[in-house]
């Protein structure tokens, strides 16, 4: 809710139509109001809007005049919310809080690793390691079942619990001796306790809403019933086997395409550099990587970070041995290749397996091995300059932001030079690849011819390497100053074609999450960001 600086009473204006289109595309609804902005000449406008993704949850909304300090009415909204009631679930947890750390260290120092070091294969080594660690913790931190019936109450401080115990104690006294004095003492303690609980809840909510991270704020609001809620009752109506089959299915490449791809790879000129090979990983490096991983998720091997770090000094040698043996043998332990897969819905009401995306929970030590491999591979690639200098993905200091900065900087430079820029976004299985060419107005036809030639090269390259392009999802846009675009309207611009399909020219396209319009004004992006980052999260 706020001032959108667009008069919705003028429904036929271009600005109002664009705003309403963006609101509808974000699955939001405009709650009805009268004119909210009043000026002396009597031309009242409706600038202040209340948007909601769930109008059925709105218990009251409206506006109040504020002539004493503003030309705008005050708008208000009351939401009827009920925090989600979780279904009871049983967890198997280890009692880490009750461990005697000294005894744990003593027993860990006496673990026998001879069988692990002498084992002939990587899987046997990992099985021995897991067995010894689990046997150790079965002594010092037993696994026990915990039934979770309700959401945690972080606001429940020690002081609040003491007040609740005092209230309950006075109530029991009143039950034993029903007199006016005992009732008065209990009533005073009850009222005081309720006030302390309300204040603690308010302070807890205020502290969480003051977080600098929007992700943390919306995660907290979700726990209160605000935001995108998952329909857990209908989430798995498709069946876990169907969802798992979808996740484990890869795009089938025909044998001809596979043979063609292998021939193309074999024909590539090998760079004149030293061949890559893994080097042994030092224990200090393994320790640094283990301590840098903060996730406490437990994988299929039942070994978590909380079981490794307390006795890390006693485990560094066998862990380093396993990692180095894996690098030397070129094998990944079978246990470390298994993952718990959690299907998360991508849409509010999923009905197809494709409406879910998988979240994989890998064993903790498999992440350590991955980090060791990544470090050596990236060092080799960087040392020999094997990455394109314009690549932004998977490079320190680079991201989609740096990629977009490069594209928008080139477009802006072309606009300052009175040139138009033809941008084509090619869809490779939901990953966008951008082609763009700049040209003066008179050379725009030649620029599009060059773009079409580049698209032919992209088509040939993708076919050689078995990649699939979806022409229906490809986008194109011509960006320039308003004056340049008006001049282009007078010209017969040839079509942009990919593999026989015409890619229509749009006024607005989305590139790596950024909305770009034909004049690079960012109006659509600013409004979309306001909606998507704010009230749209309620959908």
TrEMBL record:
<dbReference type="InterPro" id="IPR000477">
    <property type="entry name" value="RT_dom"/>
</dbReference>
<dbReference type="InterPro" id="IPR043502">
    <property type="entry name" value="DNA/RNA_pol_sf"/>
</dbReference>
<dbReference type="GO" id="GO:0071897">
    <property type="term" value="P:DNA biosynthetic process"/>
</dbReference>
<protein>
    <submittedName>
        <fullName>Uncharacterized protein LOC113496727</fullName>
    </submittedName>
</protein>
<feature type="domain" description="Reverse transcriptase">
    <location>
        <begin position="348"/>
        <end position="439"/>
    </location>
</feature>
<dbReference type="Pfam" id="PF00078">
    <property type="entry name" value="RVT_1"/>
</dbReference>
């Amino acid at each position: 809710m706020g001032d959108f600086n667009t008069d919705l009473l003028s429904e036929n204006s271009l600005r109002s139509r664009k705003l309403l289109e963006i609101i509808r595309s974000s699955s939001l609804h405009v709650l009805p109001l009268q004119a909210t902005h009043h000026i002396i000449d009597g031309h009242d406008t409706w600038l202040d809007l209340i948007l909601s993704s769930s109008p059925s949850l709105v218990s009251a909304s409206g506006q109040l005049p504020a002539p004493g300090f503003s030309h705008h009415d005050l708008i208000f909204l009351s939401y009827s919310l009920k925090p989600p009631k979780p279904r009871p679930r049983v967890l198997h947890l280890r009692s880490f809080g009750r461990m005697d750390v000294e005894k744990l260290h003593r027993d860990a120092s006496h673990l026998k690793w001879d069988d692990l070091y002498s084992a002939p294969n990587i899987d046997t080594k990992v099985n021995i390691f897991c067995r010894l660690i689990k046997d150790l913790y079965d002594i010092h931190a037993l696994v026990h079942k915990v039934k979770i019936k309700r959401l945690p109450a972080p606001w429940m401080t020690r002081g609040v619990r003491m007040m609740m115990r005092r209230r309950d104690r006075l109530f029991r006294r009143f039950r034993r001796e029903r007199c006016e004095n005992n009732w008065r003492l209990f009533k005073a303690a009850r009222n005081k306790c309720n006030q302390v609980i309300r204040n603690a809840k308010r302070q807890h909510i205020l502290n969480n809403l003051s977080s600098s991270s929007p992700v943390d704020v919306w995660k907290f609001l979700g726990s209160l019933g605000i935001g995108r809620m998952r329909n857990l009752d209908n989430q798995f109506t498709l069946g876990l086997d169907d969802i798992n089959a979808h996740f484990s299915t890869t795009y089938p490449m025909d044998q001809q395409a596979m043979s063609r791809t292998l021939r193309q790879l074999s024909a590539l000129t090998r760079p004149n550099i030293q061949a890559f090979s893994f080097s042994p990983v030092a224990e200090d490096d393994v320790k640094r990587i283990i301590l840098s991983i903060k996730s406490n998720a437990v994988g299929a091997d039942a070994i978590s970070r909380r079981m490794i770090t307390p006795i890390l000094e006693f485990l560094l040698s066998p862990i380093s041995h396993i990692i180095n043996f894996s690098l030397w043998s070129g094998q990944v332990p079978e246990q470390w290749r298994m993952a718990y897969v959690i299907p998360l819905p991508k849409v509010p009401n999923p009905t197809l397996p494709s409406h879910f995306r998988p979240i994989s929970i890998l064993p903790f030590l498999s992440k350590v091995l991955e980090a060791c491999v990544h470090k050596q591979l990236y060092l080799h690639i960087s040392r020999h300059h094997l990455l394109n200098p314009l690549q932004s993905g998977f490079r320190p200091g680079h991201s989609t932001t740096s990629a977009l900065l490069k594209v928008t900087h080139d477009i802006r430079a072309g606009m300052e030079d009175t040139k138009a820029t033809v941008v084509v976004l090619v869809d490779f299985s939901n990953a966008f690849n951008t082609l763009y060419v700049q040209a003066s107005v008179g050379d725009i036809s030649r620029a599009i011819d060059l773009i079409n030639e580049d698209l032919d090269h992209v088509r040939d390259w993708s076919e050689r390497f078995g990649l699939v392009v979806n022409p229906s999802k490809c986008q194109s846009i011509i960006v320039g100053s308003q004056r340049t675009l008006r001049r282009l309207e007078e010209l017969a611009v040839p079509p942009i074609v990919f593999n026989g399909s015409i890619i229509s020219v749009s006024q607005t396209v989305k590139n790596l999450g950024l909305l770009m319009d034909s004049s690079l004004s960012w109006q659509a992006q600013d409004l979309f960001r306001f909606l998507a980052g704010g009230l749209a999260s309620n959908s």
